[in-house]
Design goal:
The structure is a single chain. It contains eight helices and 20 strands. With 374 residues, it is α+β, with helices and mostly antiparallel strands. A six-stranded mixed sheet has the order 6-7-8-3-9-10, with helices on both faces. It has a five-stranded antiparallel sheet with strand order 13-12-11-14-20, with no helix packed on it. Strands 15-19-16-17-18 form a five-stranded antiparallel sheet, with no helix packed on it. α3 crosses α4. It is globular. 39% of the residues are buried. Bound molecules: adenosine-5'-triphosphate. Pfam families: ABC_tran (PF00005). Keywords: ATP-binding, Cell inner membrane, Cell membrane, Membrane, Nucleotide-binding, Translocase, Transport. InterPro entries: AAA+_ATPase, ABC_SmlMolc_Importer, ABC_transporter-like_ATP-bd, ABC_transporter-like_CS, Mo/tungstate-bd_C_term_dom, P-loop_NTPase.
């Protein structure tokens, strides 16, 4: 078993604390994505796990094997952890075969290189040099070189960042399949939510030097803990609601909850844009809105809507529709389950959209008109 376990990991660059107690668990053979904004410490986390950068506190273990338990720190070359940097960092003077077989004992080198060339789909290119390869091919060589050492854990630092969108999608799927075939536990860092959602078995959202939430892509997308995680995973409508044990009472009508609420009260619920439905006629729970932006995106249409009566709603609602919406106004309702979300720790109190700054009442989320007096 060689799942990764990271507990309370802290690290700094000079006097700046970058990792402030990271907890991360990746099961044996699983693919994990660490997702976070630029500069939040993702690369630093990988470099500490790889043993290239010292931890100040915390523990890192691969299965039963401690890599760093605060008392004993294994040197990088003994960790059995592979690292693929953003640019691949191939040796320019070596051929593809030379790069892949670099650290492999001579007796096994030929067979190993042939096996890895097939695994990453580069059969026949063994005699080329890196400058004779496309960006995607170079990244595949970098992956093969990292796998040649048969690591128990592979760390990938934004390996697709330099590639165009189509190649990125293709290579991402190929690399995920390759890692699954090899049964290698892997951690990929990215700031691209689509990449994380499509690549990972588990996603960890990193913020302020910690993991804000970790879970399956489905869980993080549909049931984020707070508004920042909700927004980081995709567009979200955050709607004021009176929350009961099993319902959210909103201006868009009563909605079931994704899970029973622990406490009643006023708060926010999240509705993803595909949960808003548009209609030309008023109906129960539907509010009137003006379309302020309408874009065709190939697979769907993305609309921005301004509610006519704000009612504490966000100034802009976002809806995705499968069919074109050609009118300049709509009645907006909601479908599916609403998910209660809190504000992230340390964030400024929310102000109702219609309340000027000077009148903000931080402890109160507006009560939707639909539930007043009900
Ligand atoms: N060698 C270094 N010396 C000093 N500060 C550094 C060093 N490397 C990174 N930092 C700082 O540490 C913070 C985290 O950097 P890191 O590269 O880990 O972030 P990241 O989330 O991987 O960013 P990106 O997505 O842009 O690659 C940043 O503020 C960065 O400026």
């Amino acid at each position: 078993m060689s799942g990764l376990s990271v507990k309370g990991l802290r690290a700094a660059h000079g006097r700046n604390e970058i990792l402030a107690g990271v907890d991360l668990t990746v099961e044996d053979g699983a693919l994990a994505c660490v997702l976070g904004p630029s500069g939040c410490g993702k690369s630093t986390l990988l470099r500490v796990i790889a043993g290239f950068h010292p931890a100040m506190a915390g523990e890192v273990a691969l299965g039963e094997r401690p890599l760093d338990d605060g008392r004993r720190r294994l040197p990088a070359q003994h960790r059995r952890v592979g690292y693929v940097p953003q640019d691949g960092a191939l040796f320019p003077h070596l051929t593809v075969a030379g790069n892949i077989g670099f650290g492999v004992p001579r007796a096994r080198r030929r067979a190993k290189v042939a096996e890895l060339l097939a695994l990453v789909g580069l059969d026949g290119l063994q005699d080329r040099h890196p400058h004779q390869l496309s960006g995607g091919q170079q990244q595949r060589v970098a992956l093969a070189r990292a796998l040649a050492a048969e690591p128990e854990l592979l760390l990938l630092d934004e390996p697709f960042a330099a590639l165009d969108a189509a190649l990125r999608t293709e290579l991402r799927a190929e690399i995920a399949a390759t890692l699954r075939r090899a049964g290698t536990t892997a951690v990929l860092v990215t700031h691209d939510q689509e990449e994380a959602l499509s690549f990972a078995d588990t996603i960890a959202v990193m913020r302020n030097g910690r993991i804000a939430q970790q879970g399956t892509p489905q869980r993080l997308y549909h049931e984020p803990d707070d508004t920042a995680v909700a927004r980081f995973l995709g567009e979200a409508n955050l709607i004021p609601a009176a929350i009961t044990a099993d319902k959210a009472l909103t201006v868009l009508g009563p909605l079931p909850l994704t899970a029973p609420a622990e406490a009643n009260g006023h708060g926010l619920v999240m509705l993803r844009p595909h949960q808003l439905r548009l209609s030309a006629e008023p109906g129960p729970g539907a509010i009137h809105a003006t379309i302020t932006d309408n874009r065709f995106r190939g697979h769907d249409h993305r609309l921005e809507l301004r509610p006519t009566v704000p009612d504490g709603l966000p100034a802009t609602l976002i809806a995705y529709t499968g069919t074109p919406w050609n009118a300049t106004e709509a009645w907006v309702g909601a479908q599916g389950a609403a998910h209660p979300v809190s504000e992230p720790p340390g964030s400024a109190p929310r102000r109702p959209a219609h309340e000027p700054a000077g009148q903000a009442q931080p402890s109160r989320t507006p009560v939707p008109r639909a539930v007043n007096g009900s």
